[in-house]
Design a protein that fits this description.
The protein is an alpha/beta fold. It has helices at 13-23, 33-44, 56-66, 84-91, 110-123, 142-152, 204-214, 248-258, 261-279, 312-321, 337-340, 350-358, 370-385; strands at residues 49-53, 74-77, 95-98, 129-131, 155-159, 167-168, 171-172, 180-184, 197-201, 218-219, 236-237, 284-285, 293-294, 300-304, 359-362. The chain has a seven-stranded mixed beta sheet with strand order 1-9-8-5-4-2-3, sandwiched between helices. Strands 7-6-13 form a three-stranded antiparallel beta sheet, with no helix packed on it. Strand 6 (167-168) and strand 7 (171-172) form a beta hairpin. Helix 3 (56-66) crosses helix 4 (84-91). It binds pyridoxal-5'-phosphate. Pyridoxal-5'-phosphate (PLP) binds at residues 55-57, 81-82, 84-85, 133, 159, 161-162, 184, 186, 197.
Length: 388
């Protein structure tokens, strides 16, 4: 039986043509394709600045640095995320902590955040930066977080890796509520550059810092120079930066993909609706729907329900045995050996742990066919009925 992957990129002849065009051009990197992609991405997400980077991980790293995260800083994120959302703080030598999720939305709980902030305010241990994640493409409660950020003086670095094209209160993710938002273009994400990412912001000063950090901490911009130039060749290194640049080949692929992002998202949405109908009678918790936001549907993540006769592990194995590529998002970050060594324990974030215990991400990608979804339903229905 044909294998159904859990995710699969869509690369068209147009995508290929635009990459080939760059291969034949003067610039493979640091040419015009990168700013063209940045401008298009910024425009689509309603934000004035977009800084393309080699990955979302790199973007999260320099975003933390741009927000002055360093040794002694405190950064909070959600445990229900990919490792990079927490690692970025550790790269800067900061202390990381987590805020548990809301069991329904699976995003960082505003109640838990608010309570933790009240305690932190009393003990003088307020975070410098909070990193909410738009899990599965469903925007986090960013308006409430903005309110808390203004009250307690932290910055919001939104990990929008799943959420290109998503919107919250009718505004695109990456604009209205966060100080910085980071998107990923890894091959499994909404649009891809193979590896790549972008950081968006409204703040021109943060944008300038990010551009420097992306490229060795250097600048040639006359307005940014600290000293009088030696001559027209002059550049300055003003901070310790990196080579986190996206290539023009990648940007050309990204730009071509971005041009059809809305239709890719429509396809994902239609498939998610179809899953909702197909799976409604199974002992599963289906993905949450929130009327005030539009998900990009990066993942279709269900929970094996209490009434199921089989465990998540058994259902997972049965699906894989039937050539259905399921996955689990996420092992709570605080349970990883590296983070356990920093002092985190099982039981610290019970909602994220409970979600993980039953979580299952079903195949979802634009080219998924109706009969493949039907097969997922049949294998899943049989597996859920199988007693342990
Ligand atoms: C994919 C992902 C990342 C990392 O993205 P890369 O572009 O692979 O570095 C970070 N955070 C989340 C939530 C992700 O899903």
């Amino acid at each position: 039986m044909e294998f159904i992957p859990y995710s699969c990129q869509q690369v068209t002849q147009e995508d290929i043509n635009s990459v080939v065009e760059v291969l034949r051009s003067e610039f493979l990197t640091q040419g015009p394709a990168v700013p063209a992609f940045e401008d298009a991405f910024a425009k689509r997400h309603g934000v004035p600045h977009a800084i393309a980077v080699s990955s979302a991980t790199a973007g999260l790293h320099i975003a933390c640095l741009a927000l002055d995260v360093g040794p002694g800083s405190l950064v909070w994120t959600t445990p229900n995320t990919f490792l990079a959302s927490a690692n970025c703080a550790r790269y800067c030598g900061a202390k990381i902590d987590f805020v548990d999720i809301d069991p329904v939305s699976r995003n960082m709980s505003v109640e838990a955040l608010s309570t933790k902030l009240e305690t932190a305010a009393q003990t003088g241990r307020l975070p410098k930066v909070v990193i909410p994640v738009d899990f599965s493409g469903l925007p986090a409660d960013l308006r409430e977080m903005r309110f808390l950020a203004d009250r307690h003086g932290f910055k919001i670095l939104e990990d929008a890796s799943h959420a290109a094209g998503a919107s919250y209160l009718s505004q695109p993710v990456g604009s209205a509520w966060s100080d910085l938002s980071v998107f990923s273009f890894h091959a499994v994400k909404i649009v891809t550059t193979a590896e790549g990412g972008v950081v968006t912001t409204h703040d021109p000063e943060l944008a300038a810092r990010l551009r420097r950090l992306r490229s060795h901490g250097m600048t040639r911009e006359p307005a940014e120079l600290e000293r009088a130039p030696d001559g027209p060749w002059y550049y300055e290194q003003q901070s310790l930066g990196f080579n986190y640049r996206l290539t023009d080949l990648q940007a050309a692929l990204g730009n071509s993909q971005l041009a059809r992002m809305d239709s890719l998202q429509q396809q994902r949405m239609a498939l998610a609706d179809r899953y909702d109908t197909l799976l409604r009678d199974l002992p599963l918790v289906l993905p949450p729907r929130q009327a005030d936001r539009v998900s990009s549907w990066h993942l279709y993540a269900v929970e094996v329900g209490a009434q199921a006769k089989a465990s998540r592990a058994e259902v997972f194995r049965a699906l894989r045995a039937a050539n259905v590529g399921v996955n689990v998002h996420y092992i709570p970050v605080h349970l990883q050996p590296y983070y356990a060594r920093l002092g985190f324990r099982r039981g610290d974030f019970p909602a994220a742990e409970a979600y993980y215990a039953n979580a299952l991400s079903l195949p979802l990608f634009p080219a998924l066919r109706a009969e493949q979804q039907q097969r997922v339903l049949e294998v899943l229905a049989a597996a859920l009925e199988q007693p342990a």
